[in-house]
Amino acid sequence: MKVLVPVKRVLDYNVKPRVKADGSGVDLANVKMSMNPFDEIAIEEAVRLKEKGPVTEVVVVTIGVAKAESDVLLTARAMGADRAILIQTDDEIEPLGVAKLLAKVVEEEQPNLVILGKQAIDDDSNQTGQMLAALLGWSQGTFASKVELGDDRVKVTREIDGGLETVDLKLPAIVTTDLRLNEPRYATLPNIMKAKSKPVAKKTVADYGVDVSPRLTTLKVAEPPKRQAGIKVADVDALVEKLKGMGVAK
C-alpha cells in the first residue's frame, strides 16, 4: 500500500513575518523557511502507518522553489519518507492549481491514500485537500484526530463543533490532518545523512500540462494594527461601568 504526502515550504512558525515596504506581500528574503507544521503531522502519520505494517511506501511531494529539495524534502525523507518528488516553480500557486498538479501526481503514482495538512500557515486557505478530493472523485476525511487504516477502508475520527465524528471511508481516500493527530518526530542527524541517498524526482509544472494561472489578485498586504495599551480601574464597580460604556455589559 502506498501513501502520498504533499508538503509545503513556508515561513518558519518561529519567525515574525515582515510585510514588504510596498505592501505587495510578506518579505521572505533571508528568513528561515521550513515545512508547514500540519504537513509534518501528515508525514508522521504516514510513517507510523508504515511502521505498523499496512503501508509499504511513503512518497512525499512538494511544489515550490529549488531550495525545497535541501530543506523540506530532506526533512521529510529524514522523518521516514522513502522518496520525494519536487515540482519546481518560482511562482506562488493558488490552492486550485496545487490540487490540479497533485491530481496529476496521483494519476502517476496511484497511491491508496493521500495524507496532507488541513491548511498551510502562510495563507490558511484550508482548501487543497477538499479540492483534490473533488477533482479525483475520492472520499475525504478532514481535520483528522485519529486514523485507522484497514485493508480497503480507513476510519477517520474528525473534530467538529459538537465533538468528534468518525467517518468510514473506502480507499482510495484523502485525509487532512489536525493538530491533535500526533506529535511529529525530530529529524535526527544520522537520519538526515541517510536521507540524502533517498531519491528525489525533479519535475516542472509544464511536465503535467496543468493551467495554474492565478484566479486571484492580491491588492494589498498590511500588518495587523498594534494593540493599544490597557487602562487600570480601581475596583470591580469601576470595571463594570467601563464595560457598560463600551456596550459590553448591561
Task: Tell me what the CATH architecture is.
Answer: 3-Layer(aba) Sandwich
The level-1 CATH class: Alpha Beta
Q: How would the global form be characterised?
A: globular
Strand content: 25-35%
Strand order of the largest sheet: 9-8-7-10-6-1-4-5-11
**Helices and strands, in N-to-C order?**
EEEHEHEHEHEEEEHEH
The percent range for helix content is 25-40%
Describe the structure.
- The structure is a single chain.
- This protein has 250 residues and is an alpha/beta fold.
- It has a single domain (2-245), classed as Rossmann fold (3-Layer(aba) Sandwich), CATH 3.40.50.620.
- It contains 6 helices and 11 strands.
- It has helices at residues 37-52, 72-79, 95-109, 128-136, 189-195, 236-245, and strands at 2-7, 9-11, 33-35, 57-64, 83-88, 113-117, 139-149, 153-160, 163-170, 173-177, 200-204.
- Strand 4 (57-64), helix 2 and strand 5 (83-88) form a beta-alpha-beta unit.
- It is globular and about 65 Å long.
- The model has no long low-confidence stretch (mean pLDDT 91).
